[in-house]
Amino acid sequence: MSPIQQEAVGNRFDPRLMQHARERTWAAVQGIRDRMRPGISEDQARAEAAEVFRALGMERLWHPVIIRIGPNTTKTYRERSDASVRLGENDIYFIDLGLVFDGHEGDAGDTFVVGHAPEHQACADAARALFKVVADAWRSQGLSGEALYAFAQQHAQAMGWQLNHEIKGHRVSDFPHSVHKAGDLGELGERPSSGLWILEIQIAHPSQSYGAFYEDLLSVD
């Protein structure tokens, strides 16, 4: 598939609306974070998330709401959570949202810690730091999607974390981006353009059952 096809958009695509969807989706992440408390289950958190989405004027989901708690934070997008898990007093969780605003797709994800859990906090901080290093390499070095994930792997190892190789980023666009589906960012042989690709970072502790996730739009803005 040519780079032009891989970055095709619809007739109504507007970069300003992509940024608006991005901002609204991040607001939704924060709204859900504000509702997380010890004892809550992932199912309960997703149910309460619907109230956050309504308040923000979300049009629809473009991918299911993912909220992972504790040992479920090591699972990939397609893996089923252990439904018995509840958020502990000192625990870790992440939120992964794909929401549509004004016909454009927002995709955002971050990891948070409740209580006193310094090892978990280090993991959440590492996911954000790794995202920043990789995104900065995209801006400064013009790396391809493939090269970005090879770069991410090297840096994750150097930081003492395991990178989840099944999580390799993807396209977003005016909804539905599946019309212009172009494969994973980690398989893109060209430099990804600004405002069209989601960089996903998921890491895990090398020997313990917790991990962290962070994703955002690759954008020069």
What does this structure look like?
- Helices cover 35% and strands 23% of the residues.
- The chain is of the alpha+beta class and 221 residues long.
- Strands 4, 5, 6 and 7 form a 4-stranded antiparallel sheet that branches.
- A hairpin with a 2-residue loop joins β2 (91-101) and β3 (104-114).
- α2 crosses α3 and α4 (118-141) packs antiparallel against α5 (145-159).
- It is globular, with a radius of gyration of 17 Å.
Quickly list its features.
single chain, 221 residues, alpha+beta, 4-stranded antiparallel β-sheet, 5 helices, 7 strands, 35% helix
Counting DSSP E segments of at least 2 residues, the number of strands comes to 7
Please tally the helical runs, counting DSSP H or I stretches of 4 or more residues: 5
Tell me, rounded to a whole number, the average pLDDT: 94
Globular, elongated, flat, extended or rod-shaped: what is the shape? globular
The fraction of residues assigned to DSSP E strands is: 15-25%
| N-to-C order of helices and strands | HHHEEEHHEEEE
Q: Indicate the structural class.
A: alpha+beta
Ranges where pLDDT stays below 50 over 5 or more residues in a row are none
Task: Give the distance, in angstroms, between the N- and C-terminal Cα atoms.
Answer: 28 Å
Radius of gyration: 17 Å
DSSP helix fraction: 25-40%
Instruction: Outline the biggest β-sheet.
Output: 4 strands, antiparallel
